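Inputs:
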Amino acid sequence: MALTGRLGLLALLGALVPILVPRWWALLAVWGVLLLGVLVDLALAGNVRALRFHRSGDTNVRLGETAQVALIVENLGRRRLKARLRDVWPPSAAAAPRTVQVDVPAGERRRVDMALTPTRRGDRRAVTVVVRSVGPLGLAARQLSRSAPWTVRALPAFPSRRHLPAKLARLRELTGAHIALIRGQGTEFDSLREYVDGDDVRSIDWRATARRADVVVRTWRPERDRRIYMVLDTGRTSAGRVGDIPRLDCSMDAALLLGALASRAGDRVDLLAYDRRVRTRVEGASRTDLLPAMVHAMAPLEPELLEFDAAGMVSTLMARVRQRCLVVLLTELNTAAIEEGLLPLLPLLTARHLVMIAAVTDPRIGEMADGRGDLAAVYDAAAAERARAERRRLTAELRKHGVEVVDAPPQEIAPALADAYLALKAAGRL
Amino acid sequence: MVIQSPARAQEAGGEPSARQVAGRRWRSARGVVAALLAMAVIAVILAALRPSGSPERLDPTSPKKDGSRALAEILKQHGTPVTVARHAAQAVDQSGSGTVMVVTRSERLTQDDIDRLRGVQGGLLLVEPTTPVLEALAPGVRTGNISFANTADPQCSLQAATLAGTVTLGESQTYETSGNAVSCYQVDREARLVQVQDGPRTVTVLGSSTPLTNQHLAEEGNAALLMNLAGARGSVVWLAPDVPAKGAGAGQESLTDLLPFGVKLFFLELVIAVILVALWRGRRLGPVVAEALPVAVRSAETVEGRARLYRASRARDRAADALRSGARERIVPLLGLPRTSAQDPAAAREIVAAVARRTAQDEAYVGAALYGPEPVDDAGLIALTSVLDDLERQVRQS
């Protein structure tokens, strides 16, 4: 039940009655009339209890796009229902419209179209549906709140997918039907062909040459069916915002591009999100399923305010992956965290796997380093130079351990990681 | 309900202009400003409406314009002793059948005081009496309209008035009478001076205090009228009551006793209406949805914090060190030297020599810029950055 402003207004006007007739019964009469009006309204208002809600529509939406979710209101009662309806969603679902006026004749259904434009990644659950049906006098209303469950999952936006065609073209150059694939482009034996001037003499296959009149060389192509294990750091450093985007989202974008590229290249791609425990895992997905599986696994991930547990991550990884693979760790090059956590464990990892670390640089540091003019700007520049120097030192240290480091600003991290992968592939280092 | 995220706000129209900000502030503040203005206007009006007059108005010892010392002095000079009483009880004690009691400022009399004054034997001159005083001491006299006619002629048989002739009364209360009262200075059959006989008392009611004041006493026949009225019985007790002590005689009736029943019901209904409106506004169409918000930490926050720490502690040495090593990092690859030499003290001489060669600068100058001591003051630090920038640019261009 709910009251209306009209009732309050009438009660206010009713206050004039005892001024004119200063008797108790006058006031009681005013109350009686108001109460009667309220009772009449409650009795004659549309029956909100006889409503049933059904839903249909989108369950997934890429971040930044709009999902259409329909709410079907079914009136099982014997009377027509005119009511104001609010489909309640969390604020970050940005559901519109806020309220709608519905008019459902007895025994019929009406559809209410809701447009959801989530502002953040993750699952958005419908909270409840509230219906308020005001009586004919407009003094009181029946109100009911009933749940109509539905979940819309906002998937990562994957803005770097526009880089995919260019990277795939480069990949085809490496693997495809292009001529003169010779030693150095890969280590997997492909086929034999006749020697032409300029071929590396080391590629000559003497046994085949002996069998034929011509000199024959072996051709090579990049390996296939290598394993790539991506590890997303969801610890505290991933919560830091670069521009207006959390580091984690940049990392996800890069991971998605690399995943898409590597799966087309015929490699097996697995994903692990880790801070102090396994947040999510995608393993053994087929080439076609990989991208949807990764996107769904990533959607609900949020940075945890915990220190990344490098030892735990390494032991999890070692337990799960026996054969050699490319471990891509998407994290932040934070001196303290890396030096204390990951660095002592790197020999363990690098002994069996090829390790690549991808980190997002903050363009703000660059802006600060270029700051000149007043004292504050100069101190800013000094602090930024100091941060850069630490980062350089850490990168050098990691490279000394045989780790590939990709360090790029947020817009370039995804293509830079893809390029690094392609370079490894071209060099046959996978 | 829906939290507007900053990103959406920016989409809507970018950074708001100063004009928009001012407009928004004005829109949000104008209600408060209007309320303050209204309060100021009401306060001014109330102040203007407050009855003017000093606390010593009609006081027989006050020489101010609205005091009455002149009248008291004249009475004394003409052989009529004037006793000033500050309390009703004191005045009643000093009065007798041979006295005329002048009662001014009767709004200061409590109900107890009025009851005491009923026992007065001699004459009573009530100047601008309040309604309770009038009802208690002058039976048959009721208040009428206000008259604004300045001067007035007696038009009656009262000797005191006829002898005085025309007087200036200014703004005056008028009275309606019944029975054997003498009415003088009439306007539309309502009198401004009334005399009634109430048992042993002769009660005279004067509707204006103007003739008594020092300022107006000398005008027309004012002095004569008052001397005739006050000096009628040989001596005068002037009751100019003090403000009654808090609680003395007052407060038998609370505010609720004074309110009419209808008004009480009105307020009750008002409370009910407010409760109903509160229930109307308090009932939401659906719950408030709480949602865990993501952490918003800027990635560069630690670096900015370090910059502020440097500044707070004036760490010129560390700042200069960081700036120099950063510049060396950028210059060294341009010189064709290995990157590692940038932080290697042993390579300092080689780097300085190479930079001096490329930029045609003095070796000592380059050395001081790239490896010098810490700047002595803040200006030195700022100057160092520009020197380093210059060197770097020259190396790049050479």
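Chain B touches chain A through 58 residues (CB under 8 Å). Flag for discussion at group meeting.
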